[in-house]
């Protein structure tokens, strides 16, 4: 029984040591000293810190443990402890935890694998030097990464839906969008992420220069200035977040629309004939993504934007196909 308790103690020490490395990285990279360099969106934090977590966990796991524990389960437990701690103490929001969790899991496994490979057949003293190198590497390379400029990636997200209504009916339902109820939108994972639901879109006047105000829950509003007005064919507008109405707690700083990492620039509705009495409605938007991990971050931003657009198109279709839609136009 004493042996089992001691073994459990080693596992606890391993997880605690890995958690300490991750929390230290989180506070250091969130500090003012590294904020201008990218902070928590630096590659040194997103890739090297979880590698150090995995290596540290593998270092303290007892030699009698299976490879499954050393290479897979140990890092998984430590990563989950870190993510739960970040949520419980409000270090990060749910969306950030969901975005980084696949990266942290994969790179922690990689760190554990590299550590066990590099230390195979070495003495304990040599193993200590190896794990120390893993733990120090993110902090040593951070100033060098800070010299690099984050690239700008301009992405387009497009959604299409076919509506059983003529273009004249569909047009009236896109230039203005009356208040939307939550049940009209249906369930979506973006709600669990904490993104506000769309509420309505008003229009100051028809034609080029008209201003749409697209409002979302929790005080989020976007000013959409129309620069292309082709009745029953195309409606296009620039998008600027109304920062005066958006509470600072609505979005995590790393996913704030209009921030240095992400912005939504334009939106376009395009109507195409799809047969007698049918219309193909296309909604596409352009976003700017400015991180050092744009290909990965773009998978998440594309998904979120696609879900938002899909739900809006679904509401428009429901309203256009309602029996009262045609007479109202």
Structural class: alpha+beta
Q: Which strand-content bin applies to the residues?
A: 15-25%
The domain tally reads 2
- Mind telling me the C-alpha Rg? 25 Å
Fraction of residues in helix: 40-55%
Instruction: Specify the CATH architecture of the largest domain.
Output: 2-Layer Sandwich
Biggest sheet character: 7 strands, antiparallel
Q: Kindly identify the CATH topology of the largest domain.
A: Alpha-D-Glucose-1,6-Bisphosphate, Chain A, domain 4
Mean pLDDT: 91
Number of E-state strands: 7
Protein name: SRPBCC family protein
InterPro entries: START-like_dom_sf
Transmembrane segments: 40-61, 68-89, 95-116, 128-148
Keywords: Membrane, Transmembrane, Transmembrane helix
Description:
With 329 residues, the protein is of the alpha+beta class. It folds into two domains: 2-145, no CATH class; 153-328, Alpha-D-Glucose-1,6-Bisphosphate, Chain A, domain 4 (2-Layer Sandwich), CATH 3.30.530. Helices cover 51% and strands 19% of the residues. A seven-stranded antiparallel sheet has the order 1-7-6-5-4-3-2, covered by helices on one side. Strand 2 and strand 3 form a beta hairpin. Helix 3 (43-60) crosses helix 5 and helix 4 runs antiparallel to helix 5. The longest helix is centred in the first third of the chain and has 28 residues, at 2-29. The protein starts with a helix and ends with a helix.
Question: How would you describe this structure in keywords?
Answer:
single chain; 329 residues; alpha+beta; Alpha-D-Glucose-1,6-Bisphosphate, Chain A, domain 4; seven-stranded antiparallel β-sheet; 11 helices; 7 strands; START-like_dom_sf
